[in-house]
Design brief:
This protein has a single domain, classed as Lipocalin (Beta Barrel), CATH 2.40.128.20. The protein has no helices and 10 strands. Strand 9 and strand 10 form a beta hairpin.
Length: 153
Amino acid sequence: MTRDVLLSISGMQIDLLREGTEENEPIEIITPANYFCKNGKHYIIYDEVTEGMPGVTKNKIKIVDENSVEILKSGNVNAHMIFQKEKDSMTYYNTPYGQMLVGIHTRDIGLKVTDNHIRVHVNYGLDINHEPLADCEVKMDVQSKEVKEFPFQ
């Protein structure tokens, strides 16, 4: 895969307190990113802009293997989120508005890698300060910029 890639991230969060509401709509972003592979691990790096806030959050996605994915955020938001299949992890999620203790309860991770594409699917539960908040699903598609469509959708 080339260094310059397009990253598509789509996420769905089912709020356990408000199931069936409009707030449970999927969110999707498509952004340019940088990709490299080192020691068999895939890295995707991109900047995230938060509406109404100066500065950016730098994101690094580290795909270790089919059982482990990490997301490191630094800037406006700081966190080190670890998703390990059938395991739980905790992280402090620091925002300009304060800090939260986030629990991640990873149920499943799917990974498909080809020469020009990477597809990751993570299914997990989320809690804030030990209170269950949501069931979540995130899909990440990474493709070389030369490729014109996402083939895994």
